[in-house]
Amino acid sequence: MNKDYMPRTYFILGILFLLMSGFLIVIAIMANAAPVPMTYMCITFTVVAFSASYLYPQLRQKDERAKMIRQKGMFYSFFALLIYLIVLTFLIGNDIVPLDAMDVLNILVSLTISTVFISWVILAKRY
Q1: Domain span at residue 55?
Q2: Does Transmembrane count among this protein's keywords (predicted)?
Q3: Helix (H, G, I), strand (E, B) or coil at 34
Q4: Nearest to 62 by CA among 72, 70, 54
Q5: How far apart, in Å, do the first and last CA atoms of the chain sit?
Q6: Number of domains forming the structure of the chain
Q7: What is the model's pTM?
Q8: How far apart are CA 29 and CA 86, in angstroms?
Q9: Counting Cβ atoms within 10 Å, is residue 102 exposed (0-12), middle (13-18) or buried (19+)?
Q10: Cα(108)–Cα(114) distance, integer angstroms
Q11: Residues contacting 122, CB < 8 A, separation 6+
């Protein structure tokens, strides 16, 4: 496959994941229940696919700029993860949001992966 088609492929995958995520959210709303854990991963895959479609041409090169974007993105994501942990600890500790362990893990993994890719996009636009 030609490398020029990769951003388009990621964009199409992002649209498919967006449709699947929307479907799962609509079903959860119609059932008046919490979304199934797979919904969080579908939303994460949507963010990853759209981010990859934007980042692929820029991060394909292994230059200093791409390396700096990756490093700073991971650095900022670490602090975002700490904030996520503090907020979830507060919400669960005060019984504001009743979540079991698997829900918390799914939410944390989804937020962490999404934060890494979103921070890469922001840094790629900035630098």
Answers
A1: 3-126
A2: yes
A3: coil
A4: 70
A5: 29
A6: 1
A7: 0.87
A8: 28
A9: exposed
A10: 10
A11: none
